[in-house]
Amino acid sequence: MLTPAATTRLRRQLGELPEILAHAYLALLPSGAARSGHVSGATRTPPLPCNLTTLDALTDRDEPSIDILESWACTVLDDRARANDWTAWVQLPAIRGEMAASTSIKVLSFHLPFAARRTYATDLATEIAALHHHLNAVARYPIRSARPVRTACPACHLRALCERTDGWRECLNCRTEYDPATYTDHVRQALAELRPAA
Ligand SMILES: [Zn+2]
């Protein structure tokens, strides 16, 4: 079970992974810069003109591997089918073992509200965070996460209100949800109270 803040973080990391993956693969190209490490020559067959430091980082078995994306996507899909939760059920991908990283990321993002409530949610979040961090370190142009803007919550008065992708606002503290119209009403009311009395 993930907290709303941890779920939001995981959703952001999943959303950033396709771009990070692209940057990481682009970093395989030898740059010619001294800091880019060795470039393969006759030592590997066939010789690949690529940055070996980056290649090792992308394929090292000890590091968080890109393969975890598909294994987690399959775990969540199997769990969802077993849980017989038909409300958001989608047809399972026919080909297992050959799911593209982008497909796995889409599956994980789509089923995140379900997966965040399961017992393995913490492990999922930890491994995705490690992969996100690792690939971002490998990429020559690491991306910086935009910090979500948080506003004051009308219910608990803490600055913990975040805008969701569906336009609603959700408090990370008291978990109150506001649809766009209700939130606008609250803002108007707060502004009216701030206005000096005539
Ligand atoms: Zn609140």
TrEMBL record:
Give the protein's recorded name: Uncharacterized protein
Organism this protein belongs to: Kitasatospora cheerisanensis KCTC 2395
